[in-house]
Design a protein that fits this description.
Two copies of one chain form a homodimer.
Chain A: H1 21-28, E1 32-36, E2 39-42, H2 44-63, E3 67-68, E4 74-76, H3 77-82, H4 85-88, E5 94-97, E6 103-106, H5 111-121, E7 130-139, E8 154-164, H6 167-188, E9 192-196, E10 206-213, E11 219-223, E12 230-232, E13 253-256, H7 263-270, E14 278-285, E15 293-300, H8 307-311, E16 320-321, H9 324-331, E17 348-352, H10 353-356, E18 361-367, E19 370-375, E20 385-387, E21 406-420, H11 422-426, E22 430-432, E23 438-440, E24 442-449, H12 450-460, E25 462-463, E26 466-467, E27 478-482, H13 489-504, E28 509-511, H14 518-528, E29 532-536, H15 538-542, E30 545-550, E31 557-560, H16 564-573
Parallel strand pairs in A: 3-7, 15-17, 17-20, 27-28, 27-29
Antiparallel strand pairs in A: 1-2, 4-6, 5-6, 7-8, 8-24, 9-10, 10-21, 11-12, 11-21, 13-19, 14-15, 14-16, 18-19, 21-24, 22-23, 25-26, 29-30, 30-31
């Protein structure tokens, strides 16, 4: 490519609505252009990256035996009604009426349509397994779109759907997709981690997320450096502390803690470690045929509630946080001084595993400005219902028993699900088995956020000069920067010679023939993030040298003219 | 590709809603699957064709210097309001509200968005010319979607937009796109014709359509075999007949023509050629500040009205056909007996160029069951206003004076427009010229209906066994049909050897390893339309032969095993 025939448009400053580095750099590098809230035009420079991401995804999906098709953006509401998602999805699902008043969804994903294809196309067990995928424009009407391509409304997603005869088959298809994803993220050249995840609203029996590691990631990833264990913190089990609960050593005492409504302040006042305190979280559950229930969850003062774990406690599937009014009514005091002893009205108590192992702990006394100290299970209050309620913390024992957990931040870019019969049941997608009996098809689904990869790659790879693309998804692998392309015949001739030889070697190279000053040229390409640069100048040519500089290199390396092609190819291969 | 890893799904019968051959064959060959009215999933076999079409389009657009980007499907209404198209487009424009109640269009085309990109990105004359294109999903809410991909609602279109400093630049960009389109349709391997066209609702100063030639085409294409002249019949000029008008030879006579309300019947009754009769077409024009006008257009009995030409007569831009009530009120009689002589109320008369040259003609007498014969201009009624009102017919003189016109049918698959400042004016898209003065940007736009190409290619290339794809856009170039792949080691080994050698030669080959019976296998691939087939069987192998058959060949050609690779490559190259 020649820069003069391409479209390059860089900015000194990012627009003020760009909050995170990837958004800022993509705007400054002219990769995307905002059209509306969460809606972007992919400019020529950005589209090249998207296409490279798509091609890697496509190659590995094909290698894994998946078959590409293309499902429509505009999808009839009837199918979404069959699975109940027309109602369940809420305002995130963009809905549109045609000229005849018929309802359609603008697809956020395609489980319904692919299941409709399969239920008519697949008749016999002989046609299974099959895995269909497409790479298509999606729309989710996010409440608060932001972060550029990271949380846009219109985006490009690869979604694949596997169909199998039985659970074992589904699990094999799932494994094949998992392995394909590992190859895909390897080829992107990004540091990533696959973690066990919660299935969430999509349903089914198991899932993994693929995260690009980045300090700015929204998700906390839990892993064990000594084993394969890895999970999203939402799904990571916190084991009960090892050993026995210590015996009670202190008497129960109501202690004045005036104005100390937080565990941290109570511990400070009483000169106790925070890990000796217990905090109270109050939930409410509405009941159709009875009064609502109020629940009290107890966590150690230095631990955090895991809301997904809470929802898995029997009876808490549809909980909400209690209002201040409800707290006053059930506890007789305001938040900050709540505890399990002597509530005003009966509440259902659940203690986190760690709390259940504590002795002589501190908790609120259900009276303003007072806490109990020396609280002990079995003595001061009955043994509690126990559950895993908290987020793990670094240093916790790994659930596989093989070491201690560490935590890092990640950006979710892929998700694989074992769906089972979640969709085939609603939509009556069956096949005839060897005996001619209809059986429900077992499904899996597998997504990669194609456009989100760009944001995640940048969050992981940038410096104060701009983006640093891995070569496999860079808009160009190599840029040639001739110093005085229009002034020096020698520079122009050597530039053209190297350009042609790189093209002939299959290298994706751009030559900057715009005639810009070196400073502008270098700043542009460092901002855009092309990983390899060759400078062709009269001064170097006098000594028979060109200058190579990798995007992460501190300085340029002089390379003899005749060796540059081999040098660049070696760098690309490494 | 191996058929066992692909998805092949053929049907014996087309669904009943498929009216035309391309729709029937695409459904039967499993290329598309209906999701809703005018909305199709592109199945794996169809998607392969679409991708090949897209790639040819992309390569030639890039070669012509256009730069690819990708504009969103969901576009803010504000931009469409700036050009007035939000109101003008009517129900064909699919509209959607987001969760905040803001209006969006689902793009049918992208003039507004690209002009918005350009008005902020292009500041100086130095950045011009530029040509941006994308290949993207479009939606048009057709009143009556039909014919499969030929008139779908959701479809894929390539749309390019050129931006220039002045009219000469725009015309050069237009020419470059025209030439690129010729290369594109050449590479498709389709018979096509570029014709001058009317700009229609999109506005601007000139346009050409690209048509795939097919007897089933909706458009009539006019061309001169002796010259370059070619136009859509909508835009083809009908010259005035050469020579002078004959002198009046007959007296004006009111002649009874009971029950003969059509020119054909009147001519038959009076034993006159149809070309001696004149038919009356009555139009109405509503006026804001005055009574409506009634117009009478006169055409020779054997000619057809060209509605676009009528709309270009001064005063007729917004005409409609008159109602029977209006006709009675203005002419005093019912349709079938109307004419220019003695109307009840005054009407404005326009005669087609041919009619203006007629003498002693026949027309209605404005009295039921009566016509006038021997009518002559200047004697029986004043010389008329004259205009070109009719469709040309085969044999008419070519407007370039170089021969006689011929007519063939075509399917419109591409359209190039000189837009001028139609959009840049409304959207204030300007650049600064050398003197620092803002100037309106001159635009062109260029569309290709990617998915429609499939339908058009089939309408041009099919037989009673199925589709016959040109090799460049076939889902596969070559199919290998082993007879007894699973039973004969020799067949399997030779099949695999040939498969690998074709792959290594860069041929897009599929091997049918499904183990189907030969009859099923041959019928499937003839229906799907793969252009080259090689049969590998034990009987042939005994003589060291394989069988080659082109999709249009009447019989198979035996080819020695060792020569088959070269034979197929030669066929692909020819």
């Amino acid at each position: 490519m020649r820069a003069s025939r391409f479209f390059i448009s860089t900015l000194k400053e990012a627009p003020s609505d760009a909050e995170i580095i990837s958004h800022k750099l993509m705007m400054r590098a002219g990769m995307i252009k905002r059209l509306g809230s969460g809606i972007y035009t992919y400019m020529p420079m950005g589209l090249r990256v998207i296409r490279k991401v798509e091609n890697i995804v496509r190659e590995e999906m094909n290698r894994a035996g998946a078959v590409e098709l293309l499902m429509p953006v505009v999808q009839p509401a009837e199918l979404w009604q069959e699975t109940g998602r027309w109602d369940k999805m809420g305002p995130e699902l963009m809905r549109v009426k045609d000229r005849h008043g018929r309802d359609y969804a603008i697809q956020p994903t395609s489980e319904e349509v692919i299941t409709d294809v399969v239920r008519t196309e697949i008749k016999s067990y002989r046609q299974l397994p099959i895995n269909f995928y497409h790479i298509q424009t999606k729309f989710r009407d996010e409440r608060r779109p932001r972060f550029g391509l990271m949380r846009g409304r219109e985006f490009t997603m690869k979604d694949a759907y596997s169909f199998d005869r039985d659970v074992a088959g589904m699990q094999a298809s799932y494994k094949a997709m998992y392995d394909a994803y590992v190859r895909i993220f390897d080829r992107f050249g990004l540091q990533f981690r696959a973690v066990a995840a919660d299935n969430g609203a999509i349903g089914g029996s198991g899932s993994h997320e693929f995260h690009v590691i980045a300090d700015t990631g929204e998700d906390a990833l839990v892993y064990c450096p000594e084993s394969d264990y890895a999970a999203n913190i939402e799904a990571a089990e916190a084991l009960a502390p090892a050993g026995e609960r210590a015996a009670a050593a202190q008497p129960l005492a109501k202690t004045p803690t005036p104005g100390k409504a937080k565990c941290e302040h109570v511990a400070e006042l009483l000169s106790l470690p925070l890990s000796q305190t217990v905090k109270s979280i109050v939930l409410a559950v509405e009941k159709e045929d009875a009064d609502k229930e109020i629940w009290l969850l107890l966590l150690r003062g230095d631990h955090e509630l895991n809301e997904i774990k809470a929802s898995k406690v029997a009876g808490l599937a549809n909980y909400r946080f209690a209002s201040e009014g409800e707290i006053l009514e059930w506890f007789g005091t305001k938040p900050g001084y709540l505890g399990p002893i002597g509530t005003k009205k009966p509440v259902r108590i659940v203690a986190d595993r760690t709390v259940a192992m504590m002795a002589d702990f501190v908790c609120g006394a259900n009276e303003e400005d007072f806490h109990y100290t020396g609280v002990n299970w079995g003595r001061d209050l009955p043994e509690p219902v126990v559950a895993d309620l908290r987020n793990v913390v670094a240093g916790d024992a790994s659930p596989d028993g093989k070491g201690k957990l560490a935590i890092q931040r990640g950006i979710e870019v892929g998700h694989v699900f074992q769906l089972g019969t979640r969709y085939s049941e609603d939509m009556k997608a069956t096949y005839l088995d060897e005996t001619g009996k209809p059986q429900l098809i077992q499904m899996g689904c597998y997504g990669i956020g194609v456009t989100r990869i760009l944001g995640a790659a940048i969050e992981q790879n940038f410096d104060d000069r701009g983006i640093i693309w891995p070569a496999s998804i860079a808009p160009f692998e190599v840029v040639l920067c001739p110093m005085g392309y229009d002034r020096s015949e020698a520079v122009k001739a050597e530039t053209e010679r190297l350009y042609e030889s790189l093209l002939a070697a299959g290298v994706d190279v751009i030559v900057d023939d715009r005639g810009e000053r070196p400073g502008v040229m270098f700043a542009d390409w460092e901002l855009i993030g092309v990983p390899h640069r060759v400078v062709i100048g009269d001064r170097g040519l006098k000594d028979g040298k060109l200058e190579y500089q990798g995007r992460r290199d501190a300085e340029a390396t002089p390379v003899p003219v005749a060796e540059m092609l081999g040098f660049v190819k070696a760098r690309l291969a490494s």
